[in-house]
């Protein structure tokens, strides 16, 4: 594997490293505050899949910041157990966030269908539980597989270079599994978003009368954009062996971008509708 340490000065490497850590930390803090406000506020009502979606990005940020939290961010040879744990978590984080996004969009689709049919379902506990819990089962499965692989082949676990703020694996199987999982989750997500937009357009009068059409349309449009962006990042993640400092910065900014997106949705949406 090519060594980029000689290509960048120590100061530039540290700049990329600290930039990645800062972006992830800001995103983590923002999502945590937003989640806390939504949980304690009596005037805000959100569906459980919304909370699961926000929490999945918190898990993702923590995964990428594990070396930072352990005080090993500038250590090229962190403890093996720590490095293995982080490597397993960063490969399972993308499937988790993709699956939680799909769960959220599925719930929005069902809610819109209920409005069109003038029928609000009250007994949906089982469906909601499945939508919230399923992404975390996927996360646990990928994490476990990566841990087993790392324990069987310790040499595959590495900290590639200083500007890369996380440990990964030389073996390409975890990366490919993670990327394929993301694509498999986001393709139906994008398809559902198209169906939602079509339903909104077809039944515009219904939603206009309920005064929620604008916020719903904006949310679906924004999620569509970031869903497509996540697919592109996933494909890049799968197709390249070496992750450049620029790609690391993009990956680190994902949580911050989603925080800003959700914050915008949070501000423009009705506090009385559980999306």
- Please tell me what the overall shape is: elongated
What is CATH's topology name? Answer: Rhopdopsin 7-helix transmembrane proteins
As a percent range, the share of strand residues is: under 5%
The helix fraction, in percent, is over 70%
CATH class (first level) name: Mainly Alpha
Structural class: mainly alpha
Taking the alpha carbons of the first and last residues, their distance comes to 46 Å
Largest sheet: 2 strands, antiparallel
What report would you give on this structure?
It is built from nine helices and two strands. By secondary structure, the chain is mainly α. It has one domain: Rhopdopsin 7-helix transmembrane proteins (Up-down Bundle), CATH 1.20.1070. Strands 1-2 form a two-stranded antiparallel sheet. Helix 2 packs antiparallel against helix 4 (80-116). The radius of gyration is 20 Å and the shape is elongated. Keywords: Membrane, Transmembrane, Transmembrane helix.
Tell me the layout of helices and strands.
Layout lengths: L9 H31 L7 H17 L1 H4 L10 H37 L8 H28 L4 E2 L9 E2 L3 H30 L1 H6 L3 H27 L5 H24 L7
Notable characteristics:
single chain, 275 residues, mainly alpha, Rhopdopsin 7-helix transmembrane proteins, two-stranded antiparallel ribbon, 2 strands, 74% helix, 1% strand, elongated, disordered C terminus
In short:
This is G-protein coupled receptors family 1 profile domain-containing protein. The chain is an all-alpha fold. The protein is 74% helix and 1% strand.
């Amino acid at each position: 594997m090519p060594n980029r340490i000689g290509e960048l000065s120590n100061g530039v490497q540290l700049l990329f490293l600290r930039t990645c850590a800062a972006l992830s930390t800001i995103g983590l803090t923002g999502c945590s505050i937003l989640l806390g406000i939504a949980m304690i506020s009596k005037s805000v009502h959100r569906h459980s899949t919304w909370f699961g979606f926000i929490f999945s990005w918190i898990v993702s940020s923590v995964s990428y910041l594990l070396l930072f939290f352990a005080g090993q961010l500038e250590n090229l040879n962190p403890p093996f157990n720590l490095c293995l744990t982080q490597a397993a978590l960063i490969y399972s984080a993308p499937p988790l966030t993709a699956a939680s996004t799909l769960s959220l969009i599925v719930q929005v689709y069902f809610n819109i269908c209920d409005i069109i049919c003038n029928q609000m379902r009250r007994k949906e506990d089982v469906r909601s539980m499945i939508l919230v819990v399923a992404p975390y089962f996927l996360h646990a499965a990928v994490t476990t597989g990566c841990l087993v692989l790392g324990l069987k082949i310790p040499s595959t676990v590495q900290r590639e270079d200083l500007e890369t703020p996380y440990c990964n694996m030389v073996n390409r199987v975890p990366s490919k599994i993670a990327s394929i999982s993301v694509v498999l989750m986001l393709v139906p997500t994008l398809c559902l978003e198209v169906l939602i937009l079509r339903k909104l357009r077809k039944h515009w009068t219904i939603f206009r009368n309920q005064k929620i059409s604008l916020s719903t349309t904006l949310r679906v449009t924004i999620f569509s954009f970031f869903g497509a962006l996540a697919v592109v990042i996933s494909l890049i993640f799968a197709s390249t062996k070496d992750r450049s400092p620029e790609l690391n910065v993009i990956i680190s900014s994902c949580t911050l971008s989603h925080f800003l997106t959700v914050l915008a949705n949070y501000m423009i949406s009705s506090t009385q509708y559980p999306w």
